[in-house]
Amino acid sequence: MASELGKRYECPSCGGQLLVVSAGTGQVLCCGVEVDVLQPKKLPSSD
């Protein structure tokens, strides 16, 4: 899996969050396991 610039990842083991500041190839690991990409949170509507 390639890391994409600006994406946030979260470690399923320790809950640590990572922010990619330099894109590249390879795996993003924490605590010896591959981390999950965080999905953006929905903002409340401003109606």
Question: What's the story with the biggest beta sheet?
Answer: 3 strands, antiparallel
Helix/strand-derived category reads: mainly beta
Number of E strands: 5
Range of strand content: 25-35%
Shape: flat
Q: If you compute it from the alpha carbons, what radius of gyration comes out, rounded to the nearest whole angstrom?
A: 13 Å
What's the number of helices? 0
List the uncertain runs.
none
Report how far apart the termini are: 39 Å
Report mean pLDDT, rounded to a whole number: 88
> Within the largest sheet, what's the order of strands?
2-1-5
Spell the H/E element sequence: EEEEE
Helix content: under 10%
Structure description:
With 47 residues, the chain is mainly beta. It has a domain at 1-29. It has no helices and five strands. It has strands spanning 8-10, 17-19, 29-30, 33-34, 36-37. The strands form two sheets. The protein has a three-stranded antiparallel β-sheet, with no helix packed on it. Strands 3-4 form a two-stranded antiparallel ribbon. A hairpin with a 6-residue loop joins β1 (8-10) and β2. The radius of gyration is 13 Å and the shape is flat.
Brief summary:
The protein has strands at residues 8-10, 17-19, 29-30, 33-34, 36-37.
Keywords:
single chain; 47 residues; mainly beta; three-stranded antiparallel β-sheet; two-stranded antiparallel sheet; 5 strands; 0% helix
Helix and strand arrangement:
Layout: E1 8-10, E2 17-19, E3 29-30, E4 33-34, E5 36-37
